[in-house]
Specification:
Elements: H1 2-29, H2 32-41, H3 46-52, H4 54-84, H5 87-107, H6 115-128, H7 138-149
């Protein structure tokens, strides 16, 4: 029974990973023009508040995506240990399973298609409406620790030239009418 519960938990965690991966892809590759149009057409302020602080929101998305990935990995490892009763084989099997699942999630991320831009507003609005997805200052602290440990790493606010017109460099609507 415990194994079934753990498998169910792993599936729930992986569904959150898939949702957050899709939201991150949509957020990262949503063109500025589309974001401005979505702001003008939207009735609420959730998209506006997300786009007002894009770096903080992308850090929050990444924090929770990694958290859910790790939680799923732990659940899979515990299930494998209960089935195999050998810690080394269970670790090897869990690592293989999570590597395959991780590869599938990364490989299926719609980076080069129009899907992120079409679904961007709805995904971003959905993730902002779930208050538990706001980890507060934790992602900023983790970035500060990472910058201290690896000072040669590029700053988090720099963006590649391919993304300079994405919402990561968004500063607000040009014509707020």
């Amino acid at each position: 029974m415990t194994s079934l519960i753990l498998v169910g938990m792993a599936l729930v965690f992986l569904s959150f990973v898939a949702l957050l991966t899709a939201a991150e892809a949509a957020f990262t590759f949503l063109p500025r023009h589309d974001a401005e149009q979505a702001i003008v057409k939207s009735r609420g302020n959730s998209l506006r508040s997300i786009l007002a602080q894009p770096v903080a929101h992308i850090r929050a998305l990444r924090f929770w995506r990694v958290w859910f990935e790790m939680a799923a990995a732990v659940a899979v490892a515990v299930v494998m240990h209960s089935l195999l009763e050998n810690v080394w084989l269970a670790g090897l099997a869990a690592t293989g399973i999570m590597a395959v699942i991780g590869f599938v999630l990364v490989a299926s991320r719609p980076v080069n298609s129009d899907a992120p831009t079409r679904a961007g507003g709805s995904l971003l609005g959905t993730t902002h409406q779930v208050p538990v997805l706001d980890p507060g200052p934790i992602p900023g602290w983790l970035v500060a620790i990472g910058s201290t440990v690896a000072p040669a790493r590029p700053a988090a606010t720099k963006h590649s030239s391919a993304r300079k017109n994405s919402v990561n460099s968004w500063t607000g609507p040009r014509n707020p009418t």
